[in-house]
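Troubleshooting: if your tokenizer reports a length mismatch, compare your output against this known-good record of 354 residues.
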Amino acid sequence: MERRVKGSSQKHGVDAMTLFHSVLGWDYPPDLVYKNFAGVTFSHGPGGERRCVTNYDTTLISTYGDSFTYCAEVGDGDTWQTGLGEKLRTNVLNFGVCGYGTDQALLKFELNKGPYTKLVILGVWPENVNRVVNVYRPFYAYSDTIMTTKPIFQKQGDTIRLISNPINSVAELSKLDQESFLEELGKVDYWYRLDKRLPKFSFPYTFSFYDWRNVLFSQLVAGINDLRKKRSRRPWNLYDEDNPLSIMCFIADLFVETARSRGSEPLIVIMPHKEDIRDLIDKEIPWFFRFTQYLSHKGYPFFDAVQCVADMHPSKQELDKLYGSHASAEGNRMLAEILSKRLTADYSCLFKNP
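Known-good structure output:
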């Protein structure tokens, strides 16, 4: 039976109570159907997966990730999974979830007990490094309407451990109104602690400005170093910080290990967006270079779709057609095209003999 949900204060048109998940923080329930405020319909299957408009005898691929995997701004027939399935003549399962960090995508994959597909894709939008060090969404994205908590991996010495979702039931959501509870959450949240570290401007403003000297100076030095390396100048690039980077790398390790233990081929796809593409065209070396360098060093199968699109040297006008806040239908068709070429080249036996 389909569960139809009316629009609410949630920006994607779904009530928070409907999406709440005790382990993952939030997720799409089975058979959910809803419309966003633009009138786009999103429908889900029995496993909570986003439906694709395909109907083949085989289902060889499953995909996990955030809204760029979910395809947040297009209908079911315009997702890149639908396009990829049509090109490869197989169904492609879409387990992407809006707002997810790569940690949640991994945990959702681990929770999925099958049936397993021969190929599993983890979609990583480069910005996701900011989310894996965030436990309560508003600490990172002040105006976001995802008003709940999530699990988080925390590095302690040489080990990384999982801290489970601090909210275990819908009834416990009321804890988020308690300042003491938020302060406790903040102890493991990068963005909360950053806000606490940054000096506040106050009267007299001339003296307050000098409190910012260390912060501003460190950013200036980082910017100069980035220019020397032709690297992107981004304030607080967490890929340049060992702790967030190590967590992203740890998640990649677990993803590859879990996929292979299930007899699946893992593939990490760096998801493209126009800002990252423009940045790469301008700076030549991606701001997430240290992450892809780690994947290469480990020999993990990955595909940098940002680099692939940048190599096409699209104009600003072309990029604006491919992407709004997320990929347009045209952008998803392009991704399906370049992915299908990569997969048929690297996994020819898989798709010739399903």
